[in-house]
Amino acid sequence: MSGRLDGKVAIITGAGRNIGKAMAHRFAAEGAAVVVADNHEGRATEVAGAIQEAGGRAVAVLVDVTREDEIESMVQRTVSDFGRLDVLVNNVAMTVNKPLLETTIEEWELVMAVTLRSAFLGIKHAARAMIEAGNGGAIVNVGSTSGHRGAKAKFAYAVAKAGVNNLTRSAAVELADHGIRVNTLTPTQTGSPVGQDDDVPDRGITPGGIPIGRFGRPSEQAAAALFLVSDEASFITGADLACDGGLLAVFPRAF
Q1: Is residue 202 flagged as an active site residue?
Q2: Which terminal residue of the chain has fewer beta carbons within 10 Å of its beta carbon, N or C?
Q3: Does the model's pTM come out above 0.90?
């Protein structure tokens, strides 16, 4: 039985752990050659190696997603190694857990650079490669339920993720003529907290407010992303797929 991504080539940023790692394994299992992009060489190499051992195709790429030259180089290497680029997942993000009045300009700009600017740069250079090849493509930006409403103590992150939502819509409109679809995947708490490793035994909070009654699993986000980049979603662009256990459907409680 063929995989849903047979013959495709995908870049996933932040693929060394948690949701990105799950996506890398799932995409590879569905037939894609995967570029495991991360700012930690050891994590990226471990994930790519595990995919190769399982019979898949993968390479590890060390990248600072805040730098345009490194994003461009990542895309160029992908095309050089695999001959094409079909899928980009802008998964990488970071947060500073501070409220507005305590957030420094340096913290604000770093969160914006890693979470929002990186997605813009990824789309810009991936789309150029896709347009040159003439085969279209699919891009998924990983958002957050924090980007849909105000959030205490993670001000810059919430604003950056809100930006991701309209980055998706604007890019979807601009790139539709080229056969490139752009969508957002919106998780809520899934696996480890942003910027931490997979094996966090206790997030220090309960899943209160999530109708399904538990946190998400990285494999569930990977399955949702797989749908969005597959041909099964061929008529979906500019959309925001909430994979959040129903959290955004709940009327917010007074705080």
Answers
A1: no
A2: N
A3: yes
